[in-house]
Amino acid sequence: MKGSTPAEQLLPPPPPPQSxxxxxxxxxxxxVAALYATASFALVRSLATALRTEPLFPDAFATVAASPxxxxxxxxxxxxxxxAAAYMVVREAYDDDAAAAAAAAxxxxxxxxxxxxxxxxxxxxxxxxxxxxxxxxCLGNPVVCxxxxxxxxxxxxxxxxxxxxxxxxxxxxxGRRDDALAPPARRSWPLLVLVAASMxxxxxxxxxxxxxxxxGAAGWTYLRTxxxxxxTFLDNAVGLAxxxxxxxxxxxxxxxxxxxxxxxxxxxxxxxxIAAYVATLAMExxxxxxxxxxxxxxxxxxxx
Length: 304
Description:
By secondary structure, the chain is mostly helical. 73% of the residues lie in helices and 0% in strands. The chain is built from 14 helices and no strands. The longest helix is centred in the N-terminal third of the chain and has 40 residues, at 68-107. The chain is globular, with a radius of gyration of 22 Å.
């Protein structure tokens, strides 16, 4: 290599610089956070009304169990929590792995003098993911909003925060398109996720079909007139706001018709559409043979 010392020739070439104007938009984080806060405020008001109307134990559960559509709303919440938990597991493992890699590169002097490697959390990623999941189950989808916004703030952008493994052009964002899963786990995760997502989607669809046949349109009146059912419905809406943001940024570049179709499915089918989308992620992993982080935290690959 002309003009370089023997020591410099032994080092791997530095990764190409990314365009900050394409990968970080701090103002967009504030906009999305305001949207989430507005939706969460409506949910909190509904919960306050529900608590004034009837106690949580046991009346709220009896109210939900009395209506098929209310049970469908609760099933919708369960599917959404499962999808959010899957993302949190993949994301927390990725963050630990990326932090370890950056720290090792920093120790080797491969990072620039002004580069600050990401810090690893005090707890292992399994504990962090479990904590966020339990909090979501107990406190609802506003917890998912907080989780998403913290990631966006850390990366100074909506797309960069939700998809750290994707660059501005859909390529590698951190110089990484893989994760630390062992080869057997990398081979098995798509099938496991596909089976789980398909079962949840079919079960949710069956509950909705049952509710439509048994209760029909009268179920929507029940939903509006019973505060705890209304609160559960609004909780789902808050979660769908986060899911819609993820879907929107991940499908960038795949074509406006595809984006619009998935957003329409999200509005019409709730978390049933999210189960279907998770199934497509699993199929991407099967075709590409990639790790979960590369698929879940990267943009959809363009097909030639």
